[in-house]
TrEMBL record:
Presence of the UniProt keyword ATP-binding in the record: no
Flavoprotein is among the record's keywords: yes
Official protein name in the record: Acyl-CoA oxidase/dehydrogenase middle domain-containing protein
Domain Acyl-CoA oxidase/dehydrogenase middle: 126-215
InterPro entries: Acyl-CoA_Oxase/DH_mid-dom (IPR006091), Acyl-CoA_Oxase/DH_mid-dom_sf (IPR046373), AcylCo_DH-like_C (IPR036250), AcylCoA_DH/ox_N_sf (IPR037069), AcylCoA_DH/oxidase_NM_dom_sf (IPR009100)
Length: 378
């Protein structure tokens, strides 16, 4: 059977979110990539909000392997939508894991996400150079029966279109500050959105600032997390970070793959160079799929799988850095100057390196893990 480049990813997207790819392809790039444009609406209409919600909670029940394939396909079509929806799927995956651990009321939120097609923004710490990915600028304190939140998250993707915000917070307890995850409806009093994102690339991901000023939530909307004695992450955090790294890697690989598809379809460069580009991209995707399969295996997920996801992410990052300039060179100067599409894809694909954890921050943690120590990202 013939197998076209990106066919496995697009067939998975077609199977689970039928019609989405065709509708996105019919839009001009400027429409697909603008803030509050039609792309997120098309995603919701296709049922994308419930993609990774388990079927027993009324979702589509996509596996992790299916999810990363879909993110690559979406990234190749609409980079902004891929980044925005990665944050949504990552938040949903964390909610699923929280339910598995606590057997609390998270199932109600999962069903609401699937039934009402709600979008979840992710207010987890990132974007501050030199700081821990677990450091949160949002504080939480008990006040009567409520938890009161204060702080801000910038950038925060889906800021304009979110229905719910999931945010890492530092909860003030008798035993000292404790990392927790809060779920806040977007319409809650005290939550506001302010301009922040100034770049053209990925503007459609709606990554502006979300502020919380004396936002009150009930305690059952705050999930407390723990650390191991060696500083390692707990199960909820571990699974969440694996989903984040793999989904983000697949999304940005899709952006680079869109450039490679142009090189292939237009038969640019010599055939050996085209083949080298495709081999690098497919090898990187194979690593992502292999790491995602561990999430689908049913076996316990721990530090080994987290380490594998980080290896995949940095490997993909290096692949993009090598492949994208070669694609631009193969496509030639006329392609670059005659329109913004190739330059836009290149600018978007480069942004994987700005997501947490940074290479500088994680280098010591990776080396420690590979010499038998704990993988400590905090």
């Amino acid at each position: 059977m013939a197998m076209r480049f990106l066919e496995a990813e697009r067939e998975t997207l077609k199977k689970l979110l039928p019609g989405l790819d065709d509708r996105l392809a019919a839009l001009p790039r400027e429409e697909r990539e603008r803030p509050q444009g039609p792309a997120l609406t098309l995603f919701k209409e296709a049922g994308g909000a419930g993609l990774v919600v388990p079927s027993e909670h009324r979702g589509l029940g996509a596996s992790a392997v299916e999810a990363v394939r879909i993110q690559r396909a979406v990234g190749a079509r609409s980079p902004s939508l891929a980044v925005a929806t990665t944050m949504h799927h990552f938040s949903v995956a964390g909610l699923i894991q929280a339910y598995e651990v606590t057997k609390g009321l998270e199932w109600m939120l999962l069903e609401a996400v699937a039934d009402q097609r709600l979008l979840m923004a992710s207010g987890f710490a990132e974007g501050r150079s030199g700081q821990s990915i677990l450091a949160s600028s949002i504080t939480a304190r008990q006040d009567g029966e409520d938890i009161v939140l204060n702080g801000s998250k910038k950038p925060c993707s889906l800021s304009a279109s979110m229905d719910l915000l999931t945010a890492s917070v530092m909860l003030d307890t008798d035993g000292g500050p404790q990392l927790a995850v809060a779920v806040v409806p977007a319409a809650t009093a005290g939550l506001s959105v302010h301009p922040f994102w100034g770049a053209t690339a990925l503007a459609g991901a709606e990554s502006d600032e979300v502020r919380l000023e004396d936002v009150r939530v009930p305690p059952d909307m705050v999930v407390r997390t723990e650390f191991g004695a060696d500083g390692s992450l707990d199960r909820i955090q571990t699974v969440g970070f694996i989903w984040f790294e793999l989904m983000m890697a697949a999304s940005y690989l899709g952006m680079a793959s869109a450039l490679a598809e142009l090189v292939l379809d237009r038969e640019k460069g010599d055939v050996a160079e085209r083949a080298r580009i495709l081999v690098e991209l497919e090898a990187a995707m194979g690593g992502i799929v292999g790491a995602a399969a561990a999430l689908d295996s049913g076996a316990a997920v721990g530090q080994a799988e987290l380490l594998q996801s980080l290896v995949c992410r940095f490997s993909v990052q290096d692949t993009i850095d090598r492949v994208v300039p070669r694609c631009l060179e193969a496509l030639g100067g006329m392609s670059y100057v005659s329109g913004d599409d190739t330059a836009y894809l290149a600018a978007c694909a480069a942004a994987l390196k700005f997501h947490p954890p940074s290479r500088a921050w994680s280098a010591a943690a990776l080396c420690t893990a590979f010499t038998g120590g704990p993988l400590v990202l905090g």
